[in-house]
Every structure is written in structure tokens, then in C-alpha cells.
């Protein structure tokens, strides 16, 4: 039996929703990977640490997100300060 136009539309919409979900998951995974790499490098390099701390302080405006980043910001600040202490 042939599907009605309404059934075909519903199936197309369901497929589109599945594709959107996959695209969002892919974008989220990409952000996690990039964030992990940048954070790792920032904790090694005082210049990157300074940049990352300043960027986070400038762009993270929600209080709950700021609280979540407090520990990381402390680590970044310590690394940024280590440049003046003779560490590479």
C-alpha cells in the first residue's frame, strides 16, 4: 500500500530531526576535543595560559559557569605566573 503524502512528510521530518541530532552531537564532540587540547597546552605554556584565562573571564558570564571554572582559572593563573619565575 502506498504511503500518503502526510506519512511521507512525517518520515522526512523524522529523518531531518535524526540528522540534526547527529550534527549537534558531532559539534559537541568537536568542542570537547578542542577544549581538551587547548586546556592541556595552556597548562604547559604560560603565554597560552594567560590568553585562555583572560578569554574565559571575558566570555563566561553565567555565574554557575564561572563557579565551574574557578579551579581551572586558578591553575591557569599559576601557570601564567610561572613565566616570571624562570619556568619555560
What can you see in these coordinates?
This protein has helices at residues 5-42, 46-59, 63-68, 70-82. It is mostly helical and 88 residues long. The protein has one domain (5-83). Helix 1 crosses helix 2 (46-59) and helix 2 (46-59) runs antiparallel to helix 4 (70-82).
Report the structural category.
mainly alpha
Number of helices: 4
Number of domains: 1
Residue share in helix = over 70%
Distance between the termini: 72 Å
Content of β-strand: under 5%
Mean pLDDT: 94
Number of strands: 0
Low-pLDDT stretches are: none
Instruction: Give me the strand/helix succession.
Output: HHHH
Radius of gyration: 22 Å
So what's the overall shape?
elongated
Task: Report the sheet with the most strands, covering strand number, pairing sense and barrel closure.
Answer: none
Protein name: Mobilization protein
Organism: Paracoccus lichenicola
Keywords: Coiled coil
